[in-house]
Amino acid sequence: MLKLDExxxxxxxxxxxxxxxxxxxxxxxxxxxxxNGAGKTTTIHSIAGLTPPRKGTITYRGKPVSGLxxxxxxxxxxxxxxxxRRIFPSLTIRENLTVPAxxxxxxxxxxxxxxxxxxxxxxxxxxxxxxxxxxxLSGGQQQMLAIGRAxxxxxxxxxxxxxxxGLAPVxxxxxxxxxxxxxxxxxxxxxxEQNFYLACDAADEVLVMNKGQIVWKGTPGELLANEDIQHQxxxx
Length: 236
Ligand SMILES: Nc1ncnc2c1ncn2[C@@H]1O[C@H](COP(=O)(O)OP(=O)(O)O)[C@@H](O)[C@H]1O
Ligand SMILES: [Mg+2]
Known about the structure:
Elements: E1 2-11, E2 14-24, E3 29-33, H1 40-48, E4 55-60, E5 63-64, H2 70-75, E6 78-81, H3 93-98, H4 116-122, H5 124-128, H6 139-151, E7 157-161, H7 169-184, E8 188-193, H8 196-202, E9 205-210, E10 213-218, H9 220-225, H10 227-234
Helix pairs in contact: 7-8
């Protein structure tokens, strides 16, 4: 579904992603773990076209996407749930959901097609509060809104950057349940996390990243059993 091959990304002269290669198979959730500064967000931004790689290729459903502007990548069906949620504070919940959906919506056979009704059905609290401003929501509700907003573009693939950041434990568990539900609809997911337990709960495969490279990959079960990797790269 998504494949990175020897991707190198820079900020000016800083060489951040140093030959990154991995794949996300169709219908799977792959978690990308690593300490602060490992290059996780840069990976997401490289895929979404926000910080295009200087070298290497990114292919999505067999077609190269590296080098395309970010709006075109979004239209191909790659949705982004950004780190820090980035909801529009001066818009209502309903507006947050409907404004970005314009133009970028596309339908695809075999995938669930999202609209306001189906997003509200997944997150009933957003319907209850649809006329509230984005800022009047709790952290967990803001995260649901950020996910709902990405769904409104009808992605087949979703990039999630630290959805559990700043949330209470009970909310983090809910985020795990949401990710599993999304997978059941056929979505493929790249989940960036610092929360080791959420990643192991929600993902089919885990990648550990350090200094812009993948240093380990395996199943959640293998990572849970590997205390060396947990200590060395994840600070568990
Ligand atoms: N806009 C930027 N300009 C320069 N350096 C940056 C920028 N954003 C991130 N970095 C650097 O890139 C590295 C990787 O950052 P990032 O991808 O945000 O890591 P993570 O998401 O894993 O915490 C860090 O050393 C960070 O300081
Ligand atoms: Mg980050």
